[in-house]
Amino acid sequence: MKMSDLHIEQMERDESPSAIQIDKGVPFPKRRGRRVLLSPNEREMIQSMEIGDSFIAPEHMLQRPKGSKYVQLKQSVREQFRESSHECTSSFSKEGLRVWRIH
């Protein structure tokens, strides 16, 4: 037996098919801490904003990414803008993080 034949035979033994069991009806895990729950008033406020309107983001809409000293708007707040077919941008002002509707 050649060395290459021995190697192929060993690989075939190592890669024997394994049985994978498919489970049905297992619920998805709930996301924790990723989504900011905006109040109905806050969601309505974002939906009603016109281009150029802005607000100072309250603390529960802000996050500090790991390893960063800067605060930014949480992704879930940006998602709320997208769900309302709006776009936003943000910048620091004297009062805090100001958020504008830009489109």
* Uncertain spans: none
DSSP strand (E) fraction? 15-25%
Query: Tell me, what's the shape?
Result: elongated
Task: Please give the alpha-carbon distance between the first and last residues.
Answer: 72 Å
Nearest-integer average pLDDT? 82
Kindly report the spatial arrangement of strands forming the biggest sheet: 1-5-4
Q: Based on helices, strands and strand pairing, what is the structural class?
A: alpha+beta
Based on CA atoms alone, the radius of gyration comes out at: 26 Å
How much helix, percentage-wise, in residues? 25-40%
Give the biggest beta sheet.
3 strands, antiparallel
Number of strands: 5
N-to-C SSE string, H for helix and E for strand = HHEEEHEE
Discrete helix count: 3
